[in-house]
Amino acid sequence: MRYTYEPDVEAFRGEVRDFITAELPPEEERLKRAEEGGFKSSDEEKAYTMTFQKKLSQKGWLAMAWPKDMGGSGASHMRQLVYNEEMAYAGAPVGNMGIQWVGPSLMLYGTDEQKKRFIPRITGADDWWCTLYSEPGAGSDLAALQTRAVRDGDEYVVNGSKIWTSGGHMADWGWLAARTDPDAPKHKGITMFMLDMNTPGVSVRPLINMAGRHGFNEVFFEDVRIPANQVVGEVNRGWYHLAVALDFERSGIGAYAGGRKRVERLMKLAKDHPELAERRPSIRHELADRHIEVTTGTFLSYRVAHMQAKGLVPNHEASASKLFGSELSQRIGKTGMSMLGMLGQLRNGSKQEIMDIATPYLSSMSSTVAAGTSEIQRNIIATRGLGLPRG
Fold this sequence. Notes:
The protein is α+β, with helices and mostly antiparallel strands. The protein folds into three domains: 7-95, Orthogonal Bundle (Butyryl-Coa Dehydrogenase, subunit A, domain 1); 129-237, Butyryl-CoA Dehydrogenase, subunit A, domain 2 (Beta Barrel), CATH 2.40.110.10; 250-385, Butyryl-CoA Dehydrogenase, subunit A, domain 3 (Up-down Bundle), CATH 1.20.140.10. The protein is built from 13 helices and eight strands. It has helices at residues 7-23, 27-36, 42-59, 77-90, 97-109, 112-123, 238-247, 253-272, 274-279, 283-309, 316-340, 358-363, 374-385; strands at residues 129-132, 148-152, 155-162, 173-179, 190-196, 202-208, 214-227, 231-232. The strands form two sheets. The protein has a four-stranded mixed β-sheet with strand order 1-4-5-8. α1 packs parallel to α4. The mean pLDDT is 90.
């Protein structure tokens, strides 16, 4: 099957590629930063990301699919798909939780005052957002969260902790889920808040992952006071607002565009160093399998975008794309490690290093947990897609 796009969409693809070439460092440098965390400090990473996103904002691309009255450009789903695909393939720093689900949730559930205050700052790339969902005892079963928010006059007092908070050490604002009614059924006592991360009582502690990178954090709340006007949506109905926000995250094209770039780099590595393939002939078959899987996953993402373009709501289809993409990222990492053998363990500028395979390989281990575990995705596919009964 051969996909084609409307001429204006293909012309836009070329415009995106030209913009990336003009505004970002050379390919090797930006891929090192995207895959291997090639930053000297968190401040450098934040500056690099926000500077590029402000340029996207000036072109009207940062929130291109948003309605025009909300600061977007009302772009079609296919135009947005091409944009996301090209940015991910290039390793561009476009991840933005404010755009991905805080803003869309505000559009659906926020007050006029909240929209006026926060939407322009989100579309202008003025704030870095983090998501405060998971807790030590509430991951996949997120409705089991125990962080408490108690009303006290015009404020809520928050106590508890969160874990695996991506970018929390750089965040200006947090998108917080907290329990406001401990006596209600667990899905019905949660409320969503916007939290200024500089509020007294908020402390952030780093979690260093297997690859030696600081991306995750623990966040602790000790008598943190949040103004009541920073509640988003209805009190005690935050679970339903949260679930809708998660749906904004699970389209999947970025995983496949980035995966395609990694497979291409591995194939080039095999050609430049034929001794790697000669030592393990089956690696050619593995690379062919990875290439086929990236293409298959890309079509899964195209299906999601096609449904959205027709006004349909992808649910189990988005879960299938997310599931396949996260597990594929691990298979790509394993193929790279198998090809390099013992040399695959070298990184951080070692004299014998051929390519840093280890960092993206180790980082991929969390992909089947982040944004909904593979088990959760399979449950959604089984119940909502196949109509199977709950066990």
